[in-house]
Write a structure and sequence with these properties.
Elongation Factor Tu (Ef-tu), domain 3, elongated, single chain, alpha/beta, 319 residues, six-stranded antiparallel barrel
């Protein structure tokens, strides 16, 4: 049990969209007012991936989620083992975990958050428990942009449609993925412009935008064209920016902590030997942050000619 009293934000927080950010900001403000510690309680795996769909896709890793939360002022992020608590009743969870272990005096959650065995713990249950047990409860209402609700489910749907601009509005930042990139670079000249072709491999656990050709930023600094294809992905960008692998660095957040997601600095700079058949022998794999800016051309069946034609007129400037 922690000694200091805590104000707890609870939820899955996949994607840390603007609705999630409202919960976190409210938690931090409430904790300051109550001289308590702002804590987030979430889960190491999304409950859906255990109960219903093992192939459930995530919008971000736990490391990225925690980084954004801490930049918004959260003092501690706790990833509970959902397998270990899934059979607890809502009342057991409140007594044993929230009050018993984390010394909770106030809880903040989204309007539709449910927890406990059979998801029996809803907003009404929390409100009734708060009155009986003497803690404070604050329910955060649905956050909308132009009458479109900010939700992880809707964001995944819009990604599948290639609407990365709308996704950026709902997330409060552009959608980004950490991908593996090979240290082997192939040079080509297209319309007199020296280009570098880099093979990248995405994390299959993460939600991907629809197949297509996108303008992207690499680690928040280098503009590129990314082709998402069925068999493979390739990044085309200015060769002068890729003379070395120095561009693989730890990206930083803006002053508000919500524009570019930070991942653990150890993972962003680490590398490993590539064992995939698509990598030349001895090449290394590095982590690179790919931020989706705009869908340039949707793809059904990819052809190299289409991608080259796109590159010929694409303006290489970060926005």
């Amino acid at each position: 049990m922690i000694n200091m009293k805590s104000v707890i934000a609870i939820g899955n927080f996949d994607g840390m969209h603007i609705g999630h950010q409202e919960i976190i900001k409210t938690t931090v403000i409430s904790a300051k007012e109550r001289y308590a510690k702002p804590i987030v309680i979430t889960f190491n795996q999304h409950p859906i991936s255990i109960i219903k769909n093992p192939a459930h896709k995530y919008l971000m890793s736990n490391e990225e989620k925690e980084s954004i939360m801490r930049c918004l002022g959260i003092g501690q992020v706790c990833f509970l083992d959902f397998q270990a608590i899934k059979h607890m009743t809502p009342l057991e969870f409140i007594h044993t975990i929230l009050i018993g272990h984390y010394n909770m005096i106030s809880i903040i959650a989204g309007h539709d958050f449910k927890f406990g065995k059979d998801r029996a713990g809803d907003a009404e249950f929390i409100a009734n428990s708060a009155m009986k047990l003497g803690f404070n409860y604050q329910k955060i209402q649905l956050v909308k942009v132009d009458n479109i609700a900010a939700s992880s489910t809707k964001i995944k749907y819009f990604l599948s449609m290639g609407l990365v601009g709308l996704v950026a509005c709902l997330m409060g930042r552009k959608y980004a993925l950490t991908m593996k990139v090979s240290s082997t670079i192939t040079r080509r000249t297209i319309s007199g412009m020296d280009m570098a072709i880099i093979d990248v491999m995405h994390n299959t656990a993460c939600a991907m935008p629809m197949l297509g050709i996108y303008s992207v930023c690499l680690n928040g600094a280098i503009t590129a064209v990314l082709s998402l294809e069925v068999k493979n992905s390739s990044i085309y960008c200015a060769a002068k920016a890729l003379d070395t692998l120095d561009f693989i660095h730890n990206p930083v957040l803006d002053d508000n902590g919500i524009v570019n997601s930070v991942v653990n600095s150890t993972s962003i700079t680490s590398h490993s030997t590539c064992t995939s058949k698509q990598c030349p022998a001895g090449s290394l794999l590095y982590n690179i942050r790919v931020e989706f800016q705009e869908l340039i051309y949707p793809l059904r069946e990819h052809s190299d000619t289409t991608l080259i034609d796109i590159i010929k007129w694409f303006p290489f400037t970060c926005r």
